[in-house]
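The passage that follows is intended for readers who have already worked through the single-chain material. We present the inputs for a multi-component assembly, then the predicted structure in tokenized form, and finally a short commentary. You are encouraged to pause after the input and sketch how you expect the pieces to fit together before reading on.
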Amino acid sequence: MPAPLLSLRKMTKTYGQTVANSAIDLDVAAGSIHAILGENGAGKSTLMKLIYGVERPDEGEMHWNGEPVHLTSPAEARRLGIGMVFQHFSLFETLTVVENISLIVPGSKVDLAARIRALGQDFGLVVDPFAHVHALSVGERQRVEIIRCLLTEPRLLILDEPTSVLPPQAVGLLFETLRRLRDGGVSILFISHKLDEIRALCDRATILRGGRVTGDVDPRDHDSHDLARMMIGRDMPAPLHLAPMPKGEMRLELTALDHQPDDPFGVTLAGVSLRLHAGEILGIAGISGNGQAEMSRLISGETLLPASRRDEIRMMDKPVGHLGPAARRALGLAFVPEERLGRGAVPDMTLADNSLLTAHPLGLLKRGLIDRQAEARFTAACIADFDVRTSGPEAEAGSLSGGNLQKFIMGREISLNPRLLFVAQPTWGVDIGAATAIRHRLVKMRNAGVAVLVISEELEELFEICDRIQVLHKGSLSPSLDPRSTRPEEIGRWMIGSASVVA
Amino acid sequence: MSGIEFILAGMLAAATPFLLAALGELVVERAGVLNLGLEGMMALGAAIGFIVVYEGGGHVAAFLAAGLVGVGLALVFAGLALGLRANQVAVGLAVGILGQGLSSLVGNSYESLTITGLPKLAFPGLSDLPVVGGMFSQDIIVWLSLIATAAIWAMFRYSRLGLILRAIGENPAAARAIGYRVTALRLGAVVFGGAMAGFAGAYAATVYTPLWADGMIAGRGWIALALVVFGIWLTGRIFFGALLFGALSLASLVAQTEGWAVPSQLLSSLPYIVTIVVLGIITSNKRLLKVNGVASLGEPFGP
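Having made your guess, compare it with the prediction:
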């Protein structure tokens, strides 16, 4: 057997008390698609940073083509032939595609533009070289990142959760591209937590859990069940079932809502209409950057409409378009924003003080002053009810992991006993156990007669918990679709605009 | 000489101190660093430049020395703001105050002395034109500043270095991830900015008004900083901003000598008022700001 292209032995990296990677062994063969499978927080990203030279290991060895190497910067990794496509793209928005690429690849712009077009033809990665990056969709940005990597002619291409930003159709296209690259002799490290994708694409899978390797298998020999057990250490939780509910009263109604955002790079909403009743969950599907941010600010009250248009947004059957967040919350709205730090919680404040921000009407104030005991009781109850892993109510919000903070914010908002609960990206960056708990909780709220609006990029999640789904694309909302009678591909067509077939 | 001729002939020279300092600061800010110490760097450059000329060193040595002290202060700034990642606003202010204090100290025994400036170099033919002729008779530094303006414009528009500076200003983390040495590049930009501020000070004290008076920079550094923002980080706009400011300061002089029935204090504050108004109007274009603004401006960055 020839020496592997990349070989890691006993790679270890700690951040303070946290062991992110513990004695990781990994062999990537030449010409293979190798999966790194693990939950959020399993240490996948840290491992990739070590391989790409962004971070240096505390211990361990890395061999490239059998030779020991010690990387100290991404530039060195690139010289060896390692390219990386980041999950949160490393593109420069104010530059054009070709300018972005010329930052890495030498050559004149005209020459590069021709190469970008040629590569686009060969691999189905079509993109306009002279477009500004800020004007591109997320899928197009990913193509630019991949093209930028490919033009450096890498031997190993690292892709960090590449499918999380793609509609189902585009995932197939990406896999086709990756297979062609592999057949051309490029090895691929494919990082994901999606089992089906890995079984469909990869020749080899290394599974991480809690910073350690828990499996090194051929994914085609194992079913999703086995892989899941290696990944989360137990069986996958059973999917939820929605019991039918009688149609309740109208809790949220958007009527032909148009909105031109202040931000010149924002998405203009055009004719957005939806109706949400008590006792149902409405899911808003779509790829981020299609108007989700604008829509959520309009619903939360962070963006106000002029009083003359207040009827375009109605909550609990009252016009609220001109009312701010506090007034809408007083009507019974609770809101969990997508950004947990800075919008959902204040990072430098304790959990107890963060409770106060929205839960103050629940008796946390006494004669206008803070009742510290009530505040601590409320916070402790939230922490216990929602299984938040933290040292206690006095912990700073910024010290919690993303998933735990999300559980805390969900807990705080649910404790408000809202009539309308609006959650953006409920399980983003949350491990499977916690994600399941959050979904169960949302369904429980629905069954108790709360109207629940969920914005999510995870189609599987929406299919699991929603009574109805609407798809947001370029600021327009699709008609309401029934997840029980709609195939994911159909949602995918709405996600990319029903007229075109290729993303 | 009519008022208009006076303004046309003098505005380029009047604009040059602002222009030199603002071009340097443009490069610094495009790279993502906010250096508020411009005023102090100019003041020290002015003092050193004046002393060198007064002591017989000549103008070339004066500009070199002024550029060097500008770089020296820039290195103090860079050591704290880039090396130790201290707050750039606080460090910039502190370095600015340091520069002003040092300029008072070294210039103390030269107070109110005068020197000879630089001769004017005229474009043959053009400089004899009526009304506008004066514009084509300027000292060498003015001509060099115009060349520097064109060079910096071309650098940001066409060169790889310009592209890299814009990239590290927009997203330093991404620039590092694709292999650029962000801190080293920023250091280079800050050093360049320091040298330009030194030149600007030397021009003010050895050419434009060839005398030394403590505090003679008189807020020019702050105006240069404002011009960078008012120009939305675009070289051409900064150039016209500097020109406008130069023309307005001369116009207020003309108005005073022609005995307008307007209080002279109001006239001398006119350039500042106009700058504030124009700044307010121009920076209200959100689209231009978003495309040309520097996303990481003033934020410490380090691995």
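Commentary: The CA atoms of residues 167 and 175 of chain B lie 6 Å apart. DSSP finds twelve helices and two strands in chain B. How closely did your sketch match?
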